């Protein structure tokens, strides 16, 4: 029985992880459940899965949860609970599915404790890739990617020699605004941006998909996970979300991972690696219903996020931290109605132009860079909102 700590159990990835655990209760147990403030969801999960510990990071929500919960699990309130969950002796595998830079500390803690690690939090590698990878090498921890694209690349590289990689082909669905012009995006609403055509995801990831900042984050994540130069990572649009990514080798061969758009597949493979289990949905690609596979180039003029991601990644140091922090602040402001959709790009671009990148030698370096970038982003958001 593999004991799993699910960090972010009430979010989209977390609930689908619990679907996999529920389907294979003879193999997995949710030993720790962690959430931010979704009290009702967490209560229902605790009643079903009987964890040994429950973490709720929001103080007010934690007090409410404690008043309502009558089970036997230890209840830990506060952000430090994520790190505590990641190092528990009764946990074998840590799945990090919390949103944003909050995933960095527990990821580093899990690596330091030499736990099996399944990573669904791309911001951790974007903000602190050099530190995280150095720690993973030091402790001999394999980072199992949960993002569908990075899981696809990981699977396409199994049994292959990395030195023969010519290029990574990172696929994007194109999101809800594929094919739109900048003029058409001027009046986009939050509701419009949340209508993803193929994937059912949490709010932050869905909005990042709409802006294609999600793909920019994934380019930087792929660089760190697979040690491939930015010039050898290409983004292509595959709107059916059937090809989850590809690896081209130096002999001209291309290996693709293809499957239905169901996040439970990469989640399940991260939990079972190197073994495979039957399809979590029980469904398979029906080739008779597919007339053709569509491949397009992304529009870099409309979706400026990709250009910014490559620039930040190539600059190195703490530039990736700034890219992530500015995007998080801009998305938060868009959700709050303080920014237009197109202004998200402006905030990140201006933040990066003012941010001075420095070396990343420690967790503290990352968090200081994150703080500085957020301040720059908030100032720009304030300036735009007053115009």
Continuous helix count: 15
Can you name the CATH architecture of the largest domain? 3-Layer(aba) Sandwich
Mean pLDDT: 95
Backbone structural class: alpha/beta
Strand order within the widest sheet?
4-3-2-1-5-6-7
SSE pattern, N- to C-terminal: EHEHEHEHEHEHEHEHHHEEEHHHHH
Description:
The protein is an alpha/beta fold. It is 45% helix and 15% strand. The strands form 2 sheets. A 7-stranded parallel beta sheet has the order 4-3-2-1-5-6-7, sandwiched between helices. Strand 1, helix 1 (12-23) and strand 2 (28-35) form a beta-alpha-beta unit. Helix 5 runs parallel beside helix 6 (122-139) and helix 13 packs antiparallel against helix 14 (343-354). The radius of gyration is 20 Å and the shape is globular.
What can be said about this structure in brief?
By secondary structure, the chain is an alpha/beta fold.
Features:
single chain, 387 residues, alpha/beta, Rossmann fold, Rna Polymerase Sigma Factor, Chain: A, 3 domains, seven-stranded parallel beta sheet, four-stranded mixed beta sheet, 45% helix
What's the arrangement of secondary structure elements?
Elements: E1 2-7, H1 12-23, E2 28-35, H2 39-49, E3 53-56, H3 59-68, E4 74-77, H4 80-86, E5 93-96, H5 104-112, E6 116-119, H6 122-139, E7 143-145, H7 148-156, E8 165-172, H8 190-193, H9 203-211, H10 213-226, E9 233-237, E10 243-249, E11 254-258, H11 264-272, H12 305-315, H13 319-335, H14 343-354, H15 363-386
Parallel strand pairs: 1-2, 1-5, 2-3, 3-4, 5-6, 6-7, 8-9
Antiparallel strand pairs: 8-10, 10-11
Helix pairs in contact: 2-3, 4-5, 5-6, 6-10, 6-13, 10-12, 12-13, 13-14, 13-15, 14-15
């Amino acid at each position: 029985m593999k004991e799993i700590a699910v960090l972010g159990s009430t979010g989209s990835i977390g609930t689908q992880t619990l679907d996999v655990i529920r389907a294979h209760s003879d193999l997995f147990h949710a030993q720790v459940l962690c959430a931010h403030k979704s009290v009702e969801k967490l209560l229902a999960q605790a009643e079903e899965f009987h964890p040994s510990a429950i973490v709720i990071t929001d103080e007010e929500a934690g007090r409410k949860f404690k008043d309502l919960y009558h089970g036997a699990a230890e209840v830990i309130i506060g952000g430090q609970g994520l790190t505590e969950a990641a190092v528990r002796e009764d946990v074998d595998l840590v799945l990090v599915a919390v949103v944003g830079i909050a995933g960095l500390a527990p990821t580093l803690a899990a690596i330091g404790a030499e736990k099996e690690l399944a990573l669904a939090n791309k911001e951790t590698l974007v903000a602190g890739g050099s530190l995280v990878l150095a720690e993973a090498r030091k402790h001999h921890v394999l980072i199992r990617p949960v993002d569908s694209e990075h899981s696809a690349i990981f699977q396409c590289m199994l049994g292959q020699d990395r030195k023969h990689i010519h290029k990574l082909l990172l696929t994007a669905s194109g999101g809800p605004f594929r094919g739109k012009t900048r003029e058409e995006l001027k009046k986009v609403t939050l509701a419009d941006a949340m209508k993803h055509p193929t994937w059912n995801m949490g709010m932050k990831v869905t909005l990042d998909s709409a802006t294609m900042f999600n793909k920019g984050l994934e380019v930087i994540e792929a660089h760190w996970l697979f040690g491939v130069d930015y010039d050898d990572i290409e983004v292509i649009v595959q709107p059916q979300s059937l090809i989850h990514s590809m690896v081209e080798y130096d002999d001209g061969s291309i290996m693709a991972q293809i499957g239905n758009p169901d996040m439970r597949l990469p989640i399940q493979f991260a939990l079972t690696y190197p073994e495979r289990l039957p399809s979590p949905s029980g469904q398979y690609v029906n080739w008779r219903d597919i007339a053709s596979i569509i491949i397009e180039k992304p529009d870099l003029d409309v979706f400026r996020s990709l250009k910014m991601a490559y620039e930040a990644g190539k600059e190195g140091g703490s530039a990736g931290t700034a890219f992530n922090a500015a995007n998080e602040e801009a998305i938060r402001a868009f959700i709050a109605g303080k920014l237009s959709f197109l202004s998200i790009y402006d905030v990140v671009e201006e933040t990066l132009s003012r941010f001075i990148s420095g070396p990343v030698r420690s967790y503290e370096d990352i968090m200081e860079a994150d703080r500085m970038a957020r301040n720059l982003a908030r100032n720009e958001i304030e300036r735009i909102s007053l115009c």
